[in-house]
């Protein structure tokens, strides 16, 4: 799963990587949690476009969001078949800029690790987006992160990781008009072991309200501050983890 991640690169560096025309000034975030606004890159009129959306996927067919659990991750192995995602994988693929992500070990007691590219450059998560329309005409754009099996670096910690799309495959992933969903899912593979580094961080990251550069500093394995587990979403059948939007 990918419950929390970071976006810390300067806006101009993110714009240079993704090639959109907008000039957003998205603030640095060290603990992006479900239901919060996140930057997204998608094709609009054949050109890459930047947008802010709410993190956590809400299918368009949901009648009452209060009774539906938000989908923060989508398993790559099942997106072609799951009712929640099968339209989005065909028509609404997106990229989610990031600079790293947190993962919590499966061992007891659980502890957080920070995973980031060794290069220090921003990366792109494969994402899906959807617009939910309410009964009173309100619209909410939402997005989810596609996940795959963990690579050898992360497997000792957790069995899942986000799908990281290389820059030379951005067009393949985004171009829903010319690249079919089955072809696009060829990107659902663990990241190369040499791409990333991983180290333990303080359990202060467990609280979504904590958001500061100190969260990504290395911490000794014996660190026991701020509790044992992150704020936990509700487990659901269509995603790795879920959290209510409302």
How is this structure best summarized?
This protein has 246 residues and is mainly beta.
Write the layout of secondary structure elements.
Blueprint: E1 4-7, H1 11-18, E2 29-32, E3 37-44, E4 47-55, E5 69-71, E6 73-75, H2 86-91, E7 93-98, E8 100-104, E9 112-117, E10 123-133, E11 139-149, E12 160-162, H3 170-174, H4 181-184, E13 196-200, E14 242-244
Parallel strand pairs: 4-11, 6-11
Antiparallel strand pairs: 1-2, 1-8, 3-4, 5-14, 7-10, 8-9, 9-13, 10-11, 11-12
How would you characterize the overall build of this protein?
The chain has four helices and 14 strands. The two termini are 21 Å apart. The chain has helices at residues 11-18, 86-91, 170-174, 181-184; strands at residues 4-7, 29-32, 37-44, 47-55, 69-71, 73-75, 93-98, 100-104, 112-117, 123-133, 139-149, 160-162, 196-200, 242-244. The protein has 246 residues and is mostly beta strands. It has one domain: hypothetical protein yedk fold. It is globular. Strands 3, 4, 6, 7, 10, 11 and 12 form a seven-stranded mixed sheet that branches. It has a five-stranded antiparallel sheet with strand order 2-1-8-9-13, with no helix packed on it.
């Amino acid at each position: 799963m990918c419950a929390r991640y970071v976006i810390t690169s300067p806006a101009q560096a993110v714009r240079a990587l993704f090639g959109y025309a907008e000039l957003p000034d998205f603030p640095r975030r060290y603990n992006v949690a479900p239901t919060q606004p996140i930057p997204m890159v998608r094709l609009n009129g054949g050109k890459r476009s930047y947008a802010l959306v709410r993190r956590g996927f809400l299918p368009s067919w949901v009648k009452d969001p209060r009774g539906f659990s938000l989908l923060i991750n989508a398993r790559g192995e099942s997106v072609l078949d799951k009712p929640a995602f099968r339209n989005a994988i065909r028509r609404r693929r997106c990229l989610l800029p990031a600079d790293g992500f947190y993962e919590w070990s499966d061992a007891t007691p659980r502890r957080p690790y920070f995973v980031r590219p060794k290069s220090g450059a921003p990366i792109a998560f494969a994402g899906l987006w959807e617009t939910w329309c309410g009964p009173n005409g309100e619209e909410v754009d939402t997005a989810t992160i596609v996940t795959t099996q963990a690579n050898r670096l992360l497997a000792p910690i957790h069995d899942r990781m986000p799908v990281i799309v290389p820059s030379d495959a951005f067009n393949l992933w985004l171009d829903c008009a010319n690249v079919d969903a089955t072809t696009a899912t060829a990107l659902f593979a663990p990241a190369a072991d040499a791409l990333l580094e991983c180290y333990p961080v303080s359990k202060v990251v467990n609280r979504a309200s904590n958001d500061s550069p100190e969260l990504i500093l290395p911490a000794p394995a014996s660190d026991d501050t701020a509790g044992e587990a992150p704020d936990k979403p509700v487990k659901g059948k269509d995603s790795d983890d879920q959290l209510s939007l409302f």
